[in-house]
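Final paragraph of the annual report: two paired records, presented back to back.
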Amino acid sequence: MTYRRFALLALLCLPLSGATFYISKTNGLDTRSSTTAQSKATPWAHIPGMAGATSNAAGYSPNPGDRFILYGGDTWGSTDLGGVNLTYSGSSGSTIYIGVDQTWFTGASWTRPIWSCQATNCGNNSSTLGNVVWLAGNYLTLDNIEVTGYKYDGSSSNIVATYGNGITVENLYIHGWSRTGGSCGSGTNDPFAMTMNWSNFGGEGTGNLFQYNVIDGSDSSDIGGNYCFGGILHGNIVHGNIVRYVYDGMNGIFNVIDGNLVEYNNLSTTGDHCNMIYPQGVFSGTVIQVSNNVVRHSVCSGGTTIFMLANSANPSYVAYAFNNVLYDNEVNSDKGFSIGGPSTNGTFYYYNNTVVTATGACMQNGSAGTGTAHYGNFHCISPTICNFVNGSCINDGGNVQQTAAQADSDSSPRFDQYTASETYAYSPVASTNSTVGVGTDFTSSCSGVFASLCTSDSTYTSYDSVNHKAVSRSTTSRPATGVWDAGAYEFSGGTTILPSILGSGMNITPGVTLR
C-alpha cells in the first residue's frame, strides 16, 4: 500500500504535458468538442482568444503545455482577429504554444498561416489595448505566423505586443501595413510592428524573447515617402530579426540586441527620428549587449546608426558592442557608433567591429555624453576612429584604420578587397589582407558577456526575401591564444562558408550570444 501511495503521488506531481489542438479557418468548426479538435481531420476554426472564436473554442481555458496548431496556408480575416487576446498562461516548464506543424498545410508546400487585417485597424478594441495580437499571459510562444494588412488610423496600437513574462515571439513575418492618412512618428501613439512592455507597466517582460522575426515594410503604403511605423520597441532579448523599411529600427530599453539586420530606415511622417538601433537604456540590471548586428542602407539624415544608452544618465551602466558591421549609412548625421546621454552615462566596450564611413568617425559622442569608452580590434574605414567631445576614449589596441581607397586596393603586399559587394560586406578575402593577424587577443577579458566575444566572429545575418527568413553564416572561431583579426571577421583560411537558415526552439540566456 505504501509503494502504491507514493507511486500515485509521484504521478500527480509530474508536469502536465498538455494537449494538441488543430485550427483551420477553411475546415474548422468551433462547435466541435475539445477532444474532437485534437484531430487534424476535425479542427476548430479559431484559437481561444481570437475575437471570432465561438462555442467550445471560445470557452476552452488553455492549460500549461497545450499546443494550438494553425493550418499552413490558411487565412484568418479581420473579423476572425478583431484583436487576438491571449490572456492565458503556461508555466516555466510547460509553455503554451501557438504555431505550426509544417507537415500540415494546404497547397503544394507548407507556407505560414496568415492573419490578415484586410486594410483595417483590426486591433482597435479595449480588450487588447489596441494591439492586433496581445500576449498578456505568461510563458507563451507565438511562432511562424504571417501578419499583414494592418491599417493605422491614429489610435494607440501595435501589431504584436507582449505584456507578461517568459514569452517567445519567433519566425513571424509582419508586413503590408498602411495608414488612413495624416502623420505619425513623434508621439505616444506611434505604431510599432512589435513591442515589449516593461517596468512602467508593472515589471513585465522578464525572460521575453523576440527571435528570427521579419518586419518588412517594403510592400507597405509608406514606401515612396516618409514612414509611419517603427520596428521593435523595447526588449529583454532581441535576436536574429530582420527589420527594414521603418523609421525606427529598434528603440527603447534592452538587455541583448544580437544578430539582427536593420536596413533602409527613413524619416517618420513628421520628420522625426531615423534610428537604426537606438537603445536608450537597460531593460533590467545594468548591462546591455549589442553584438553581431548588420546595420546598413540608412536613407534619412539626422538619425543615428547605433546610439548606445542614448537617454541614460546612470553611471553604473555597462555597454558592450562587438562583432557589428555598419556601412552605407552616409546620409546619417551619426555614421558609426554614438554615445549619448544627458550626463555621465556609464562605461562602454567596443571590440571587433567593422565600421565604414567616408565622413565623421567610427565612434563619437555629443556635447552631453561623458562616459568612458574602450575600443579595440576596430576595422575603421573612416578618417577618424574616435571623436569625443567629452568623456574618455581609450584605445585598447589591435585597430586597423583605412581610407576607402586603401581598403579596396590593388597594391602589394596586401591587395585588400574590402567592399560592400562581397557576400559578407567588408570581410577579408585572403590571409594577406590588412585585418588578418593584427588584432589584440582579449581572451583574458573573456567572462560574462565577453565570453561570447571570444567564441567566434560575426554571424552576419542577411535576408532570404523569398521565404522571408533570417539567414546567418557559419562563424569562424577566434584563436584561444595568439593574435586575433581586427574587425568583425576572423579570416576563414579560404574555406567557403555557406549560409544556413536559422531554426527555432533555441534558448538564449541574457548575455550569451547564440552560435
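The closing record of the year follows.
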Amino acid sequence: MYDLKISGGTVLDGSGARGQVADVGIREGRIVDIGPALGAARETLSAEGKIVAPGFVDVHTHYDAQVFWDPTLSPSCYHGVTTVIGGNCGFSIAPLNPEAGNYLLPMLARVEGMPQETLKAGVPWDWQSFGDYLGRIENRIAVNAGFMVGHSAVRRVAMGERATGEQANADDMERMKSLVTRSLKEGALGFSTTVSPTHNDAEGRPVPSRHATREELLALASLVKDFEGTMLELLPNLNFDEGTAELLTDFSLAGARPVNWNVLALGGSDEASVARAKKQLAATDYARARGAEVIALTFAGAPTIRINLVSGFVFDALNGWAPLFRLPLAERMQRLRDSAYRTQLDESAKTSQGTFGRLACWETFRIVEVHSAANRDFVGKTVGDIAKAQNKRPIDALIDIALADELKTSFMPPAGGEDDDTYRLRAKLWTDNRTVVGASDAGAHMDMIDTFAFSTQLLGKSRQLELIPIEEAVRQLTSVPARLAGLRERGELRVGWHADVVVFDPATVGCGPVYTKFDLPGTREGRLYADALGIPHVIVNGKTIVRDGALMPARPGTVIRSGRDTYTVKLQGRQPATA
C-alpha cells in the first residue's frame, strides 16, 4: 500500500518531455511508482484534468529570518515551491555573535526590508555557528530549505566594527577563512557576497562585503572548491561596468563552481533595454570562453517596486544620495526642507548611469501609500500630475509629499515591460541556458517588491500569451534550478527520488492580485502578498503541506546540507548560448 497516491493527472516529469496520464505512488517520502491504475493508498489526491509536476525550486530567497516566525515560508509554499535557497547576497544570519547580531538586525531591516520589530520579536538571535543555526530549524519547516554562508555576516563576526570601513589584515583573513570553512563543513550550501551599490547598512554605509578587496573576495570564494555540493553567488554592479565580467569569471574560477548573479531584468522591448540585457548576458560568454560559468537569474515578470525615503533603499544608489540616509530621521527631514539641497539631489541623481539614471524621473513615480490626511488625495496619482497642479518642480512635489508623511510615503516607479512584446522577449530569456528563472527575493523587501510569486507568474503569463510549451515552463521551474544548485534526487519526478510534487490546473494557474497582509510579529506593519491561483495540492517529501489550497499541519521539509543533499556542479561541459 502507498502512503500517498496522486491519481489521474498528466505527469510532467520536469525533463521537458511530453506528459502522460498516470498515477504517482509515494511511500516513505519517495516516489515508488509512476503508471496507470496504481493500487490502494492511505491518502489519495485526485489530479484529473490537472498537471502533476516536480515541486518548484527557488534559488534566490531571503527566508533566513522568516523561517523562525513562519516555518511554512509563505507565500512560497502556496505557489508550488518545495525547495528554497537562502543566505544570498552575503546576508546570512550565521555565523553569529552578540555584537554581530546587534549590527546585522538593523542592517537586514534596511537592506532587505524586514521590519526591525519583526526581526526582534520573531528571531531568537542566540546561536553562534552555522551548524547551530541549521539545527534550530531542522524538523520544523514545511518546505526544504538550504542556506549559503554570507560574506557580510562572516566579516562582521571576524572584524567587529572594523568590518565597515577597513580592509582586512592577515589575521582578519584567517578568521574569515576559518568561519567560512567551518560553515561549509556544517552544511552551508556555499558562499555569497555583494558589491552592489544598492546594498547599504542601517547607517547608510556600504555593507561589510563592499569594503572587501578583490583579493579577499576571491580568497573566500576559493574555499568552496574543497567541499562537495557547494555553490557561489555574487551580486555585481548591475550597470556591468568595465571589470564586472572579469570579476564574475574570476570568482567562478577561484571556487571551481558556477556563480549566479541577481538580477537580469528586462524593462521593455526597446533597443536600449535589449542592448542592456545582451551586455549582461555577454558575461556568461566571456566566462565560458575562459572555462568558468556565470549564470544570470532573471525575472518571470515585470516587477513593481515601492520605495520610500525612510529606508532609502534604491534611492541611496543614486549619485550623491547615500549621505542623506546616514542622517537620523529628524535631521534628514530638516535637510530635505532646504531648496538648494533639493536642487543638488535632483541634479546629481540625473548623472547616475544605467538603471539608476532612468530612475531619476520623479514625475513618473506613482503614489501608492500615504500616512497623513494631507496626502490622502494623492494616492494613485503621479508626482508629475501633482507637481503640475501645484506649479512645483517634480523633485519638490516628491519631497513635500514625503515630508508630510515623515518620509514614509510609498512611491512606485513605472514597472515597464508589462506589454506582450516584452514578455515574448522575456520568454527567450527564460529558456536561454545563460539564465535561470528566479530572483524572487522571497522573505525580503516585504513592503517593496512582488517577485516572490515567480512560479505562478511564469505559468500564468506563459499560458495567457502562449509563450513557451507547458513542458518547458515546468522544466524551467524544476530541473533547471535544481541542477544549478546541485540538488540530489530533486527537480524531476523519477522513481526512487524525493517526492516533492505540485498539482496545478493548467487552465487557471497564475498569481492573484498583490495586497498587504498584516501577519508580521511585533509590528502593525504589513507585507506584500499574493495568493496562488490554480494550485490545489503541494507535497514535500511525501507529505501533503497544501491540500485543496489549504495549509496542512505537516512540516516535512528537510534542511538541505551541502554534500549530503547536494552534488558538485562542475564547470566543464557547458553548452553554447541558446539565444
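Residues 315-412 form one domain. This concludes the annual technical report; the extension proposal builds directly on these records.
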